[in-house]
């Protein structure tokens, strides 16, 4: 591959009893060979009648995609029954992820896109020791701190705290966490999105960004000192801003990404702007990782109803990020 043409994208199968196999097939049907990717999973788990081409190596994906969904076969222990995850398949779900990481780290794949997993199924079947996909990927990469970004064409937003109760956010939102979140986000915008001088908008935690301390002191005690320190390093930051006025179209035109203080403050605006097309991006890894912003959807698995929009967006974003990273190398 030339410096500006990345290797094909590796798409891991995720939980085979969910909608992952169906949306992988739909993604190939729309993208074909225009965006080469290959699916790591058991060929027998794909919907019946889907054209597939078993490949020996990722480099074969571009040619194979002309005829069918390129499959890097990864055998599983059991069949996939829609909506009914089998513990016997848990170990293979995990090893498919690890295989994808190996391929993207050795350059055989340009980026990693992951199909949705079901954490309980992995714990029940293989004693999966991680809270989720992201933590497992960080462990495989030997990285202590990663950042979750949700992205669509209209908005890139990062929550500084994620899956914790709102009551625990103020204590969790310390200076070190916020500093790391902003540094990782800034570096990723340059390296993976090709934005040379990123502008990052930072929300306050409290209404009206604390209104000078009358509605809370987290802005004064935590957020502002971090922003001042990073501005002194040359990072372009706006804020802390009142979260209720920073996500309309005019405000979004003034920045490249936003950092919010907690889960819903970040996810409500992006899901309102583009519910189906949002992409989950993990920043801070030594490789590119995207995923669709939804779960396994067991309730509709196997019915042909699954919407592949988010997966297609995740593959397209992975490809753009891979090109940006290759161009910057």
From TrEMBL:
This protein's name: 4-hydroxythreonine-4-phosphate dehydrogenase
Pathway(s) served: Cofactor biosynthesis; pyridoxine 5'-phosphate biosynthesis; pyridoxine 5'-phosphate from D-erythrose 4-phosphate: step 4/5
InterPro entries: PdxA, PdxA_fam
Subcellular location: Cytoplasm
Binding-site positions, a divalent metal cation: 163, 208, 263
Miscellaneous field: The active site is located at the dimer interface.
Enzyme Commission identifier(s): 1.1.1.262
Main location as per UniProt: cytoplasm
The protein's assembly and partners: Homodimer.
Family membership noted in the UniProt record: Belongs to the PdxA family.
UniProt cross-references to SUPFAM superfamilies, sorted A to Z: Isocitrate/Isopropylmalate dehydrogenase-like (SSF53659)
Gene Ontology biological-process annotations: pyridoxal phosphate biosynthetic process; pyridoxine biosynthetic process
Cofactor: Zn(2+); Mg(2+); Co(2+)
């Amino acid at each position: 591959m030339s410096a500006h043409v990345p290797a094909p994208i590796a798409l891991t199968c995720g939980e085979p009893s969910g909608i992952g196999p169906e949306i992988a097939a739909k993604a190939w049907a729309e993208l074909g060979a225009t965006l080469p990717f290959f699916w790591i999973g058991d060929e027998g788990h794909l919907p019946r009648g889907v054209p597939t081409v078993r490949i020996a190596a990722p480099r074969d994906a571009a040619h194979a995609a002309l005829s069918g969904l390129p499959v890097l076969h990864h055998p599983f222990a059991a069949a996939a029954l829609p909506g009914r995850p089998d513990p016997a398949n848990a170990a293979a779900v995990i090893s498919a992820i690890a295989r994808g990481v190996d391929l993207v780290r050795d350059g055989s794949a340009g980026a990693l896109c992951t199909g949705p997993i079901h954490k309980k199924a992995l714990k029940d079947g293989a004693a999966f020791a991680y809270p989720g996909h992201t933590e497992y990927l960080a462990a495989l990469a030997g990285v202590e701190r990663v950042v979750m970004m949700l992205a669509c064409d209209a908005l890139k937003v990062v929550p500084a705290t994620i899956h914790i109760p709102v009551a625990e956010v103020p204590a969790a939102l310390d200076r070190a966490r916020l500093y790391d979140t902003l540094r990782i986000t800034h570096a990723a915008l340059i390296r993976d999105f090709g934005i040379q001088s990123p502008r990052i908008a930072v929300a306050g935690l409290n209404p009206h960004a604390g209104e000078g301390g009358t509605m809370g002191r987290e802005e004064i005690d935590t957020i502002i000192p971090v922003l001042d320190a990073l501005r002194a390093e040359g990072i372009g930051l706006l804020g802390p801003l009142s979260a209720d006025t920073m996500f309309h179209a005019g405000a979004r035109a003034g920045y490249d990404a936003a950092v919010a203080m907690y889960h819903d403050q970040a996810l409500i605006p992006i899901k309102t702007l583009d519910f189906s097309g949002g992409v989950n991006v993990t920043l801070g890894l030594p490789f590119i990782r995207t995923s669709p912003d939804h779960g396994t959807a067991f309730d509709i698995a196997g019915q042909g109803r699954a919407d592949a929009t988010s997966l297609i967006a995740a593959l397209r974003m992975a490809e753009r990020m891979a090109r940006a990273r290759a161009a910057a190398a």
